[in-house]
Amino acid sequence: MSLSKADVEKVASLARLKLTDEELSTMTRQLDQVIQYVQQLEELDTSGVQPMAHTADLANVFADDLLRASLPRDAALANAPKRDDECYLVPPVLGD
Amino acid sequence: MSLIDSPATELLQLLKSAEVTAVEVTQAYLDQIARYDGRVKSFLSVGSERALEQAATIDQRRGRGEPLGELAGLPVAVKDVLCTDGWVTSCGSKMLADFVPPYDATVIARLKAADAILIGKTNMDEFAMGGSTENSAFFPTTNPWDVSCTPGGSSGGAAACVAASMAPLSIGSDTGGSIRQPAGFCGVTGLKPTYGRVSRYGLIAFASSLDQVGPLASTAEDAALLLRTIAGHDPLDSTSAPVDQPDYLANIDQPLDGLRLGLVREHFGPGLDDEVGAAVGQAIKEFESRGARVQEISLPHSKYAIATYYVIAPCEASSNLARYDGVHYGYRTDEAAMLADLAEERKQLAAAGDEAGLANLDSPLMRLYRLSRSEGFGPEVKRRIMLGAYALSAGYKDAYYVKALKVRRLIRNDYDAAFRDVDLIVGPTTPTVAFGLGEMVDDPLAMYLQDLYTVSANLAGIAGISVPCGMTSTGLPVGLQLQAPPFQEERLLRAAHMFQQATDWHTKRPTLAAETP
Amino acid sequence: MTNTAYETIIGLEVHVQLQTNTKLFCRCSTSFGAEPNTQTCPVCIGMPGSLPVMNRQAYALGLKTAVALNCQIPEFTKWDRKQYFYPDLPKGYQISQFDLPMSEHGWLEISDPKGAFETKKIGITRAHLEDDAGKSMHDEAAGRSDSRIDLNRTGTPLLEIVSDPDLRSADEARAYLSELKLLLTYLGVSDCNMQEGSLRVDANINLHIAQGERTAATPIVEVKNMNSFRAVERALRFEANRQFESWQANPVELGSPGGHKTTRGWDDQMQITRIQREKEESSDYRYFPDPDLLPVTATEADVASVRGALGELPAALRVTLAKKYGIDAYDADVLVNQGRPLVAYFEELAAACDDGRRASNWVQQDVLRLLNEMDATIDQFPVTAAALGELLKFIAAGDIDNTRAKDVLQEMIDAQSSAAEAMAKLGIEKVDASDLESLCRELLAANPAVVADLKEGKMKAVGALIGQAKKQNPNVNPAQIKSICIELVKQL
């Protein structure tokens, strides 16, 4: 399997990145190289092997439903690139 | 021996007995930073004023006989991947260049509670992605042993500042070798604890199931001292292990009798530098002369570790880094210019009668996302985001992501089997010593292959340490890696200490040149 | 409508906000209506370095609901990231459940007392936990060019309950929603307030149209923006008609070119559905297990203990009430549908007056009417079940008739008094039996025409005497007047 520029462009859109034509070429070449390398995993027979998403052998970790102080609004909004007194601001959200 | 060349454990004794003050210690390190960091560039920001203020307060409290924390008066440098309340935490990225967290990471809170002095935030590869610190959005850090070489990464600043005696202790993070590899390159001791040993709360995530915070120091004993403060269960991190916390220092002087060391056959194959191989061989002999029994073991799936890692880590990273979109914090593109460009593009498409082009034209919000992220992230971060988004996308997830998780299980099984026969696994930390700045920037895959010996520990969630074990003919340090079963940091540190009692590689320090004006 | 037969296929996705104090993954408040961005912290803002920790109570409420919906509870469940970009989703992903939800394969029984459809079990595909998004506000009227983002709601625990496509009409969909809401209310897991967004409904609908031997399916439409059960009912009726008309004009089948699933929004003002712009690349959520969260396990014993603590749920309670109090299924349904507190009031009242049917009638006719007038809930009703029971006992004893008793109840409310006090205040006292008889004799003597009628068996004639009796003494019991007069006429 090898990666085409169109594949990379689609992924860039999915990941909300905008690549210049030059970046797109370099990225396609480099990603393809890594993908080719990674395909060596196909050699292994992993049938019957349980996927391992965590190494921590833990389950049922909960916190009690007890209120803690929230951030003061100014502290919450302090890092916002654009805001008013109450909210974060973004270009119009279209649709719903 | 001057203050800055003393191990942290000794400094602590001097502080406790009031032979030196916290202000004197802090000033000594600040002076060293002022003198040499222009060249090494290990710090992104130095908190001179607040460090001295804090030191003065500690001295006063000590003078009044008040109880003090266990690291009282000891400067600690912190990799800029950990959130510090009110202090810019950039993660080495333009994206977070101005980000001031409103909270402390648990590790930072523990350091503060122990009265450690946070002296500065150290440089790193952007979002901890890289092995040379060249991916920092701000500047590369150099290797104190040879400033034309990299210090390794991603905790390059953390390792370099200890090597250059700019801090007695520092905190790094390790996702695929990011503590052990720079420790090896810089000739210091660096420990990656078992996954779950140290809280990740406030650690800016790269790959959540692999990330772990750990200490870098001159000696295993100092690393034990720092680990004792930062480790322990944290209810704010679901993956934090609710296990007993041993006193890593209590028995560190006791040699490990009848230590069984496993030598990984696969780690001595092609690709291993001769000088590194020789130094590691010598170190193993040293262990044998102290009564350790060495036996060859096999980790048959270790050759798949890099491939496995470079699927799982980017997948998690692509998701963890989705939050950087220029909306709630962090970098946002110039909105006015963006809107003007969009208007112009729309005009041109309309003039050309390009209906499809018009329909596909980004909305302002979409364009804001894409530009903010493309301008805020560097090339390596973008590569990994792309890799991860691809590997998780419809039609590929099973072939890449799920497959990698299965191989990860096989890698862990290899370790479980090996640790039935041996107490620790020993080998080189990296295939080569520090490489030259700029040498690998255009070859990501070659850079990834540097992680050959370190990534398995992250995939399996076990502990590992790198200690200096030699020097090459060109005067660069060689790192020896020891790996232990989960939650056996105590054993790891005792073995490392045992080695350091018998050798003096860890005491060697580079000769630094002051910055040329 | 033509004579071509078609069947409407509907599945509902209901999102319910669980009634916890704090959010699903952090300890910020979930209360509604706070000033924007005052209930957030590093975790729900998705700040770098922050980590989620699952709310024990949210999981418990989810499990309780799943068990009550007769779901199978797997031993192992985990949380996944559903990835998409949106300004009210600060992490860039929603924490949800993908391939191993906390519950699957349940059912909810619906019925219609009026008989519009037969009682049937609606399959529950799954019920799983996830975190809510914040709010994006866009107000063009105010001349703002930017959307404003409020993250207070971000991270509120939601239970998504997905039904199988088992519903066959808008009526059934409405019945399903009512029954589900009732169940959730009985369980106390959600306030189900649709205005505040505590309960949200999306519907998937298409038609199966008979085409000779085979059946053709129209493209599935997901209908959104329905803000009341009534809106759901109307939107589904509209959509079924629209799909049928569209099919007749241009028969496009599900899965054929142009036959993919689309999303339409309900416009309540225009009473139509409109096509919605698709969210960009909504199709590729790149689900994968959230590495920051650990799995949750549930043993059979855990599930059994949850099941044991559920209490009697609406379906069972209807049967119990009908049996225990000898009331009609219809009446039991009305009572149960009013919620657990009203049922408790009814049961206390029935015990106090020792007459389930009388209690049922009074609750349905008078208590509910008064509550409606007062715009109050049963907890706020000023007359306790015991006090009302006393009044009903007076009726049973023949001390007072039903009509007068209604006046007494009003007096009890107005003066906050007991039944006896209210009756005294209104001058109602039991009329002595001998007084009654002499009154009846007087009336019969004064009305020979009525006596004649009665002798001929025209029993309705006695009504005139009751009216006159009441004029002379408002406390007389009409039933008693009637029986005494008839008895006296027989003796003549």
What do you see in this structure?
The complex is a heterotrimer of chains A (96), B (517) and C (492). Chain A is mainly alpha-helical. Chain A has helices at residues 5-14, 21-38, 73-77; strands at 62-63, 88-90. Chain A has a domain at 5-43: Orthogonal Bundle (Histone, subunit A), CATH 1.10.20. Helix content of chain A is 34%, strand content 5%. The model of chain A has no long low-confidence stretch (mean pLDDT 93). Chain B is an alpha/beta fold and 517 residues long. Chain B folds into two domains: 3-265 and 420-506, Amidase signature (AS) domain (Amidase signature (AS) enzymes, Alpha-Beta Complex), CATH 3.90.1300.10; 331-376, no CATH class. Chain B is built from 17 helices and eleven strands. The two termini of chain B are 28 Å apart. In chain B, α4 links the parallel β2 (75-79) and β3. In chain B, strands 1-3-2-4-6-5-10-11-9-7-8 form an eleven-stranded mixed β-sheet, sandwiched between helices. The mean pLDDT of chain C is 92. In chain C, α5 packs across α6 (329-337), α9 (385-396) runs antiparallel to α10 (402-415) and α12 (433-446) packs across α15. Chain C has 15 helices and 17 strands. In chain C, a hairpin with a 4-residue loop joins β14 and β15. The longest helix of chain C has 21 residues, at 229-249. Chain C folds into three domains: 6-301, no CATH class; 312-425, no CATH class; 433-491, Arc Repressor Mutant, subunit A. In chain C, 40% of the residues lie in helices and 19% in strands. With 492 residues, chain C is of the alpha+beta class.
